[in-house]
Amino acid sequence: MVEASAPSNIALIKYMGKIVGSGNQPTNASLSYSLDHWRTIVQLESIAGPEDRWAPLERTGYAAPVLSEKGREKFLQHFQFLKETFNAEGAFRIRSANNFPSDCGLASSASSFAALTWAAAEQFQARQSVNELSVLSRKGSGSSCRSFFTPWAIWEKDGAEAPQGLGFQKLLHAAVIVSGAVKEVSSSEAHVRVTTSPNFVGRTDRAEGRLRHLLACLKEENWVGAHEAVWEEFRDMHDLFETSVPPFRYRTTDSKNVVDACHHIWKFKKDGPLVTMDAGPNVHLLYRPEQMELAEKMVRHFREKHVVVTSWGGFR
Ligand code: PMV
Fold it and tell me: What does pTM read for this prediction?
């Protein structure tokens, strides 16, 4: 029996839109920060019988992901692809669990597919490098290829890599869970639908320009500049969703109120967290360690209405 775990990651420049038939090649490069405290564990056990099966893994502090029929199928298909790649045979029970809420915009496919790829590599004693495993994982779930590098990961084409010379290596993370509901439009569906938005014209160039600017800000430790790039980026992605044909949205009144509160903080303090949202209604905040007091204050405020998960003080 082997076991592996991998972290989730939060994109600051988003992967949104993929090249059709390319095995999840993105239409633009992305950059993420690894959420090392949010993990998926995958366990593989050899079983008799013709086919692989998925089952929930029981572990204190972890819960089985909410997997739709399609989600489970995708996960098992990726394992089949890994077996073929590693020239392996036999059937396996794949158990998995996350220590964070999944399927509400808290990307659990990233950590799940990365952990499955690691576990398979270990089970079948694969000789691939980390970069090669990242490419394999990408074929199962695009954003998972970034979960092989910490704290920063850049993904331009085939697989991700660790960008050199970036500051802000240690950040505090808080996620304001305005809704824990399973989302109606999956990110796979979102990647297809955004191409129908009139705003999709120029999206690659906008994301690319922002990525270059953000990398420069992170190198120079320019927090204000980084915030501006990250802020524009998540709004650009959500505008794509809302102008698709037909439109769809993840932003709710509650998300808007949280985002507006962050905007106020920035306006009056000229400082604040990096603010971003994935394909879901929840809001992610990243703080520099010296902003702990501000982070605590904001978390206390958001906890009056919402569950807030923090990297420094657990889940409440
Ligand atoms: O890897 P996928 O297909 O679940 O896509 C993830 C897309 C976003 O989370 C919205 C953005 C990103 O880059 O992680």
Answer: 0.96
